[in-house]
Hints:
By secondary structure, this protein is an alpha/beta fold. The protein folds into 2 domains: 10-106 and 297-315, 3-Layer(aba) Sandwich (Rossmann fold), CATH 3.40.50.720; 109-288, NAD(P)-binding Rossmann-like Domain (Rossmann fold), CATH 3.40.50. Helices cover 33% and strands 15% of the residues. The strands form 2 sheets. It has a 7-stranded parallel beta sheet with strand order 8-7-6-9-10-11-12, with helices on both faces. The protein has a 5-stranded parallel beta sheet with strand order 2-1-3-4-5. Helix 2 (43-50) packs parallel to helix 3 (66-72) and helix 5 (109-124) crosses helix 7. The chain starts with 9 loop residues before the first strand and ends in an 11-residue tail after the last helix. The structure holds (2R)-2,3-dihydroxypropanoic acid. Residues 60, 83-85, 108, 293-294 line the site of (2R)-2,3-dihydroxypropanoic acid.
Amino acid sequence: MSGTSARRPRVAVSRTGLPGDAVKRLAARFDVTDWTGTRPPTGAELAGLVQGCEGLLVLGSDRVDAALLDAAGPGLRVVALASMGYDGVDVVAATERGVVVTHTPDVLADTTADVAMALILMARRRLGASMDALRRGAWGAFRMDAFLGLDVHGATLGLIGYGRIARALARRAAGFGMRVQHHHPRRREDDQLSHWVPFDDLLRTSDVVSVHTPLTEETEGLIGTTELALMKPTATLVNTGRGGVVDEKALLAALRRGELHSAGLDVMTGEPRMSPSDPLFSEPHLVVLPHVGSATEATRAAMVELAARNLEAVLDGHPALTPLPG
Length: 326
Ligand code: DGY
């Protein structure tokens, strides 16, 4: 025995108090520093935290760019996201530096699909506007013509993207008596739940269009004025993916002109710091949620657990469990 112990790998965690006990487990093996602030770290604060680290455990809303990777230094081996979306990561810069990036698919699919289904019901049945009216004291009498929405059963759901969350939503929609179709740009496969249709056909023939694509250069602004104009005036648009896929100005204009029945958004381009006077919040045919798709105790803990297991795997010299798709 030499009497000297090996230096433990250094790991930075971009928040404190993450759900579950995965970070505690990491701290038993690694030299873990977490961000202890009550608000998320700024880019500069995160850069200070990651210096000299071999592993980073971060959230989907953290920016992992070349500057942050360089702040960590050449020993950095893994960036483990507790998030399925990875649009905040400069994947090219990470690859150039030999850093493995991992994310958390699967574990949040059902939970996020629940929120997509809830948005469909809320927007189409005008449940958000009904609750607002009740809270304003505007419910004086039962009227046959008040708070009328559109039926969900018998409606056609069009899924843009057909990954895990979209499939989980397809299963739920079938239970609600909806017909389901989807568009995926590369995979033209049908299954028992849904059949593939061309993009424009999906927009023209769906009663509900639900967006499930990652935010990339190709999908930014995918649903804009032209696409909204193809949709039925009785249609509902739902987005639980990333705000940037939908052109919000075009959406508001379509709703105000009555060219679209309703919409439900769990994600917005300006999130998370949004003004209460944001026009999105005053449009009666729009239901907006603060990015709660994966927000259950069990799912958030499962996301942190999978991120931690990815980080451990790479630092132990094993392949990551869920690296980014190639
Ligand atoms: C995800 O995992 O991408 C969700 O949007 C939560 O960040």
